[in-house]
Specification:
Largest sheet: 14 strands, mixed
Number of helices: 9
Structural class: alpha+beta
Radius of gyration: 28 Å
Number of domains: 2
């Protein structure tokens, strides 16, 4: 090869390398511009990303300092909805080695804020769908693994007196195998484990599920322990007009769903409850009367040896027709108050199998007095 041809080849190779380097340098800015353009044009929302870092060898990129606000289409007023210090999106190599091309995402210190006018079920579903659309734009692959580190979930209501602003902190969530990439033969191949702090209390959740099933299919248990009710006084004063001077709250639940049916129970528990005390001397007469009534009911339904108020509410049925037995709940309150204390633990009696084989419900004493059997009602209707 002649010297001139060698030089020409060298110049071509050098030019290509320079183009690749220039494209690599410009790529983060191109992606950042596209991301901010997409966030700014979302209907009903406005968002912004501060920076994007690419890691092409790892097949990943990192979004730094992102926020997404809800925007009033009439006034233009923005309300904080979501913010996150960093989002790391990448190919999940563990799944890739098993023949599946899926992604994983990690949220670092995310914040989600719900306001009173935005917490209706339909609105939450809309918010979830809109946020999923944002995530899909950032991650074109199906997400198989998702992790949340140091998250905060807040609820705000500025229309009340006092204003309500409550939250759970230090939220950690790990969801794995969401696309069934490792084992598609298992009934519940995916897992979700979560924990959080709620006003000196601890929240834990463990679930197995099948995200690809046509109908919701899952087996979940959760418990909230030792939450300090005094720190929720703004909430109680705003919605119940009472002051809690002392008390700890716990909640235990198990739920399973399969073939459009569900079964489960919820077991709330309050310990050391004190509503009316020395701190209420400045309250007006009607406030004191209301708090005395609320406190009196608490005293009536309290298990005095263990100083706790508790009940257990079972529920089961179809997902399009949920029913909760109120008489059963009231009966358990009275049993807890006068017979025995409900133990503050998960009972371990609900599983995916219990959805197909629901227990036959026994009538309580109150049900026998105040309610007729459903079958009797149907017979009466048929006779008429």
């Amino acid at each position: 090869m002649s010297t001139s041809k060698k030089r020409k080849v060298i110049w071509i190779i050098t030019g290509l390398l320079l183009l690749i380097i220039a494209f690599r340098i410009a790529l983060p800015y191109i992606v950042l511009h596209y991301a901010n353009k997409s966030l700014a044009e979302m209907k009903g929302y406005y968002g912004h990303v501060q920076d994007i870092d690419l890691a092409l060898i790892r097949g990943a990129y990192r979004v730094d300092s992102i926020y997404l606000n809800k925007s009033d289409t009439v006034s233009g007023k923005q309300t904080p909805f979501f913010a996150c210090s960093a989002i790391d999106l990448s190919i999940e190599w563990k799944a890739l080695f098993k023949g599946s091309i899926v992604g994983e995402v990690t949220f670092e210190k995310p914040l989600v804020v719900f306001t009173k006018d935005k917490v209706e079920p339909k609105q939450i579903a809309k918010d979830s769908a809109d946020f999923k659309k944002v995530l899909d734009d950032f991650m074109p692959l199906s997400i198989n693994r998702c992790e949340v580190k140091g998250g905060v979930v807040r609820f705000k209501d500025t229309s009340t007196t006092p204003k309500v602003d409550i939250q759970m902190d230090n939220l950690h969530v790990l969801a794995q195998n969401l696309r069934n990439s490792y084992d598609s033969t298992t009934l519940l191949p995916a897992t979700v484990n979560a924990s959080a702090q709620v006003y000196e209390g601890t929240l834990t959740l463990d679930a197995k599920l099948n995200p690809l099933a046509d109908n919701p299919t899952f087996d979940m248990s959760a418990e909230l322990k030792n939450t300090n009710l005094v720190k929720l006084n703004d909430f109680f004063q705003a919605y119940a007009k009472i002051d809690v001077n002392k008390g700890r709250f716990g909640l235990y639940t198990e739920v399973a769903a399969k073939n459009n049916r569900f079964a489960g129970y919820v077991k709330p528990l309050i310990k050391d409850l004190d509503i009316l005390g020395k701190e209420d001397r400045k309250d007006n007469l009607f406030q004191k009367l209301w708090e005395a009534v609320a406190g009196g009911v608490g005293q009536l339904l309290r298990n005095h040896p263990k100083d706790q108020v508790a009940t257990k509410i079972p529920f089961e049925g179809k997902l399009d027709d949920p029913q909760t037995n109120i008489w059963y709940a009231l009966s358990h309150i009275l049993q807890n108050a006068f017979i025995h204390a409900i133990q503050p633990t998960i009972d371990g009696e609900i599983s995916i199998a219990s959805v197909d084989n629901p227990k036959e419900e026994k009538k309580t004493f109150l049900q026998k007095i105040f309610s007729k059997d459903t079958k009797d009602k149907k017979d009466e209707k048929s006779k008429k």
